[in-house]
Design goal:
With 538 residues, the protein is of the alpha+beta class. Helices cover 20% and strands 49% of the residues. The strands form three sheets. It has an 18-stranded antiparallel beta barrel. Strands 1-2 form a two-stranded antiparallel ribbon. α1 packs antiparallel against α2. The longest helix has 47 residues.
Amino acid sequence: MNKKLKLRMTTFFFFSSLISHSTQAAKISIEQRLDLLESELRKNNQELQTTKRELEHYKAYFDKAPQQLADHQISQKNKDQLNGKMSVPVSVVSKQNTSPIQVRDVTLDDLSKYIRDDIGFEYSGYFRSGWSTGTRGAPKSYAIGSLGRFGQENGAWFDLQLSQKVYDDHNGKIAKAVIMLDGNVGQQYSTGWFDKDSENVLQFSDIYLTTKGFLPFARDADFWIGKHALQKYEIQMLDWKSHRTDAGSGIGIENWKWGAGKLNLSLIREDVNAHKTDYLMSGKYQQVNTNSVEIRYRDVPLWDRASLELSGRYTKTNKNDTNHKNEDNGNYNDVKDSWLASAILRQKFSDGGFNEFTLQGANNSIASGFTRLNGANPSFSNNGSGDYYGKHTNGTALRIISQGENYLSPDIIMAHALVYAKGTDVYSYDTGAHNNFNSLRAVVRPAYIWNTNNQTGIELGWFRQKNIADSKQYIESGYKTTLYHSFKVNTSILTSRPEIRFYGTYLKVAENDISRFEFADAKSDQFSIGVQAEVWWK
């Protein structure tokens, strides 16, 4: 309290006491006493108003001082912003001492970590988009899954994942809710309404709860329930997955430490629409319930920077009496159990390169996925669409896959994807039942590294596939050449994003017995130019 105010109040009470005790010695009228009291009250009120104004001034000063200091320090550190690391100086100011007593830089990484760890919210995603035109009008894509995606992606794809921590006892028990949306946005027309029958599509690919610390026998493992599946493994240059389970809903355990490696387990519902044998005329199908059990034993150390993963998946049908009846009378396609087995050898190199070598075997409808020219995913239904058709006859197939990137020198890097596949008595979605097939796909992308942010390279793709069904031979082959320059954020071809690419692509269909594909004007080739942006974030 202000010293002058204290003095006035002391005088007031002293004087009042003096008047009260001296009434017997000197008679003072009531009017005189009231005048004295009013005079003192008036002075005290003036002092109170003055003190109030001073307090408001000090409050405003303490409120503004930290921000003024932060603004001053930000103006002194603009270089951090230019380097992609924006700093927000935070000052703690003592109200007893108006000088700053602590100054600390808070980076965007700090804020991100705070939001992720303390608030528990994560937002990650991916998209690609761009512009292109060609010599045959609007450019078309051909056999991306065999010739490579670079210079052929004429659509825009996206993934958006939201994760919120909903429980944390700070003693090892954590629960998170996760939702993922993905889809395609057409780039041909200005309108972009979502419609499953157009090029604009949207789906909830994941919606599940994941936990840690609730299983007493595996406290460090991730235990989840909902629409989800074990991790997908992508052949990035060919735009399909070597491992993928199309989940309706499920339950799983991941990262369960088991001996030298980690164990992943899942049970997934994966119903299909089994088409009637005359589906093209009737358009009818029946729903058949199926469930997939998958086991993966991964991260088993071998030698320096090398690890092994072994996995197996079995999809079992769960038919009702009506399903059996419709299949037995020959009106609907017979839905058969199917399996997939894989071994993956991963090797990392000290210079940042890596290689992944995969050996796979499958039967029935999963083996049929190996025959596809584009999305050669190991799906139980036709490319994961949920549609099941065709006469599957317990045929088997195997394939060998190699993908990765290697630094041939400090200035030269090369990425590759090589696939050899072979099958016997396998149903093909292109050439029908009882196919014996073999195929070879090769895509390489060497590039010259000008610096961290600039690369110039070429992607070369070639493939050939032969199907033999009912003693008739079907051959498909083609090649692609893409010349490009890219703006990058690091030198890696496969693992660094964002990236902006300027390219020119030549496509040639050499033989088309399987797909019957043609470019516009019934031509077998096309040249296109374009620019594409690709980015992922977390």
